[in-house]
Amino acid sequence: MDDREFWKGAVIGAAATLLLSNNNIRDKLPDLLSGIDSMTQRRSSDAEGASENDSDD
């Protein structure tokens, strides 16, 4: 059983099952995902602002 992709998938699947079967985590998951989304949008807008400021020179 030297198939690395199989074991990687098995570990990810086991972790997802464990996380999604936990009621506390499942209840907080939407808040976590929306926090990640807003954080990535903020970084994206910060990066766009920085590139616009650099092009003004």
Strand content: under 5%
Approximately how much helix is present in the residues?
over 70%
- Span from first to last CA? 58 Å
* Alpha-carbon Rg, integer: 19 Å
For the sheet with most strands, the description reads: none
Low-pLDDT stretches: none
What is the count of DSSP helices, taking H or I runs of 4+ residues? Answer: 2
Question: How many extended strands?
Answer: 0
Shape: flat
Mean pLDDT over all positions: 82
Helix and strand run: HH
What would you call the structural class? mainly alpha
How are the elements arranged and paired?
Elements: H1 4-21, H2 23-55
Architecture overview:
This protein is mainly alpha-helical. Helices cover 89% and strands 0% of the residues. The protein is built from two helices and no strands. It has helices at 4-21, 23-55.
